[in-house]
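User: Assemble these into one structure.

Assistant: Restating your components, then the assembled model:
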Amino acid sequence: MALSWLLLILLALAVIGYFSGRSRALASAGGNARELHSLPSYYGYNVALTTLLPALGVLIVWLLMQPMIIDNTVSGLVPDQAIPEGSDRGLVMSEVRRVANGLDGAVASEAMTEAQAQNPDADIEALTAALKDAGQVLTQDITQPILMAAQKYRSMTSNGSVAMQVVVLALALLGAAFAYVRTHKEFRARNVVEQGILALLLLAASIAILTTVGIVLSMFFETLNFFQLHSWKDFFFGSTWAPNFRGGSELSILPLLWGTLYISVIALLVAVPIGLFAAVYLSEYASTVTRSVAKPLLEILAGIPTIVYGLFALLTVGPALVSMFGNGGALGVGWMASSNAVLTAGLVMGIMLIPFVSSLSDDIINAVPQSIRDGSLGLGATKSETVRQVVLPAALPGIVGAILLAASRAVGETMIVVMAAGAIAKFSGNPFEAMTTITTRIVSQLTGDTDFASPETLVAFALGLTLFIITLGLNIFALYIVRKYREQYE
Amino acid sequence: MMNQMTNVERSVDSKNIKIAANNVQVYYGDTHAIKDVNVEIEDKTVTAFIGPSGCGKSTFLRCLNRMNDTIDICRVQGDILLDGEDIYDKRVDPVQLRAKVGMVFQKPNPFPKSIYDNVAYGPRIHGLAKNKAELDEIVEKSLRRAAIWDEVKDRLDAPGTGLSGGQQQRLCIARAVATEPEVLLMDEPCSALDPIATAQVEELIDELRSRYSVVIVTHSMQQAARVSQKTAFFHLGNLVEFGETGQIFTNPVDPRTESYITGRIG
Amino acid sequence: MTDISQMPDAAPTAKPKSGSLFEKDARTKRRNAAESRFKMYGIAAIGIGLLMLVVLVTNIVTAGTGAFQQTYLELNVELKADKLDKKGNGNIEDIKKVSTFGYAPLIASALENEVVQLGIQTDLKPKEMGKILSKAAQAELRNYVIANPDEIGKAVSFRFLTNSRVDGYMKGRVTRESIANDKSVSVEQLDFVDQLRDAGVLYKAFNLDFIFGSDASDQRPEAAGIGVSMLGSLFMMFVVLALALPIGVAASIYLEEFAPQNRLTDIIEVNISNLAAVPSIVFGILGLAVFINYMHLPTSAPLVGGLVLTLMTLPTIIISTRASLKAVPPSIRDAALGVGASKMQAVFHHVLPLAAPGILTGTIIGLAQALGETAPLLLIGMVGFIASNPPDGIVAGFLSPNSAMPAQIYEWSKRADPAFYERAWGGIIILLIFLVTMNTIAVLLRRRFERRW
């Protein structure tokens, strides 16, 4: 029975529960709804929710836990000798899963009977041939321990899902019965239903926490794995990034961090002055009409997906810069060899960040009370003197916060650098050279043929965690500054 | 009320006109906010603008140093002459005008800077001091004139926003007099202050009269009676009556003025 | 003393203490110059920003519109029975045995006929003439024959795609000079193309297949379309909408209306504002680790993409929903509570409907953001997958591997043949049309239902 059927049955039970609960409540009040403590529909909802929620909760937890438990059990069945040289338990387990899936597929396509699939003494060569005939993908030869494990895996999975279905349905029926029996005109159905809904609302709000926990945990454990395979000293303090899938990689974050920061600094050098001056003009000088036209137009830049900026950098800005600074370029300087360069990525990222800086600064400048501006103008200061000597200093903490938020954006930006920064990790001060960044390396280490046991892949999680911590730090600090700043004028 | 008024000293000895407004009209978009106002403000005199809320007295005050320029929809017609020169002439730079006609606002609005920098701000932008020593001197003189020197002389580097409301307002007055204005406009300077601070500021206004022409907008008739020599009563955008403070409060000509000062309108 | 009406017009004036207002002193002039300079900087900043926007948009439009046009060659192909149905029994299984390759001679001879009929003089051999057509032409012909076996033996008029170089030549991207080192097309072939164009059988036409078609392999840029990945995006958006909207609204209601002032609430709030600023690539890592490696959901599936984008969009939706809930004045809640409604009823019956337009606006903007997002999709395998077939059925739409619009664009931008770049820009035009439409709807909704309390 597929998951969707189980869900449909649960839903049907809930609907039936709703109507029966409702009618039972009405019946207990002799058909007079005014006699009831709550509106009739609440009695219905009560039954429906009691049917649905515990069952769904158990279902979700079961679905999340079952693979972990099965993996652990089955993995224990594979003897250490069965793990080939140069491989590890994780790889063998994925092979086990593949075989189990292959058996499933073969049985489903009737190339094999269930009994054949479960036969522990089956001839391995015949089985492999049968699986291949059935069009199942196998990467290596099946060995006896793997077959045993795969069969165990299959039986646990199928037993597990049968058990799950039984438990979930039983729970649903129990819940329905319990709520149905309790349904009576004195029963405070509304309060119970509202408690239930409140719990659901809290659950929804907690997803934010779950996401953060998920992000941290998913990267944390893989990072730990990485540091078991690779020295943490090299990661944090080494000087070379040279992944080598044959082993002996040097995986240091420092050259990547250098590239990331270099590009971010160029981006901020473009975005901050332009964004800030634009914000000052819009909030202090522009007429209402200009403002209502220019501000949304600028903000369009913020709504354009990064893939567009990436393409713009790759196909337009990069070649344009080469035609200016490259060999035989308009300036005849020959500084730039390829369109992939720090400058290309930085400039385009700067353009992307202009509206980000300008709308944040605009908000912050507008939060400076008008009375302070009047005070300055009333003393005979010009507008620019007022802005430079009174408004901007007053807004400085907020603007610093905005710049930090923009910096965090720049550090975490992926598409532009993936497409336009290049792939060479090095320490260099030349903005016309290609360099690489943390995000670029995460993408390249995790795409393509990924083997989740090699340090070359796992390093991506360590990079991700570092990136997460850097941006989180920047964000928390920036939000703290901005909040403090706002409180000052409230 | 009458008792208080008799206590106020009134002396208007010279008829030295500092600001003359002729047929001034002010529009906010389509609203006719000030209607045909004529008034003469004398030098070294405190002139009070009184009237119910929304009568246009603050608007008119802001016309006197062109602070209304910062509001897009505001239009001013008629002549306002400062020392015989039309301040709305297109040759006039409002920045230069405001250096001569200083302003103190309703809510104390010190800059988020140190006390010293608050006072030094005007002299700095107008280039009134040649060196640090001169600037120090101006700051001290202004703070003394605003009667706040003794309270802040030991903490000139402390932020101006950290002072109490009354101190902040006197700091703002010090900031305004530091640019050596000829006229000082005050827009309800005591409305955000407690009675003690109000008394201090009122005393200060009386002292400032010796050097400047002071125009004060106030909600409080008692305050007008206490500090001013001339009073103008505004009602619905019209200047209803203008004259010696004593005369306005004891013997108003216009029935509307009488209604207002006896509390029937407002 | 005097009434205003009797006031004298002229009054003695005091002598000004300092200089006249009518003369600007040197310092004022200097300060005014600084003022106008400062103002110019502001105008320049805005100008640069807007200029960038204009450059970007012009760039997209000029580089991308080409993708909506494609060069076609009209040919009358005789579906020779002796080649296609060798047994002559019309059995569809036998017809299917003729491979794509077997259709090449038909096209070649059709082209030869055409040349003779139009009186075109060329030194090209028929095989080389055929090379101006796309490799997709044979497959197209075969699909047609298999779909209409009755037509065998007749002559049917076809509109074939031409090769991407010919297409590039027609669009001005490829010139006789630029093909000097290009083995896939020769100057003679381009002359031939000119003759065909003059004869009116080779022309550019609107390319519907780009919008609705599927991606094609590296060798056939002229046949690549964005339609299938558009479906992938669509299925992802269903997932995002179905999950992010209810969860986001529920979370916002809890935080805005019911949450007690305690540590948990604080933690949730801080979490949400931070999640909104977490780089999107990190969500991709989360998706890879949790949904694919741990839960074993299928790689490249729109379901997984949708789940990742949901987590990424949630903070945006929560923040905007809370803002619209906050905008409903407390008096509405008080009124409902006052007539005996419970807090829950007040929220669900009164506050939520009033906040609905705002919530909808926020959701659309969140969806638009998710639609354009690329980085997380890279990690869950939605890039690099060639979306050559549309999913069959709804379940397959969610679960079978697919690409998504931005991922498809990225994929094209990585390919070697510059003809794909035109596709990438064209894809961006389509993506931006979606985004602009969504944002316009959001703005209109906001205008239409904006309420001042």
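Strands of chain A lie at 241-242, 250-251.
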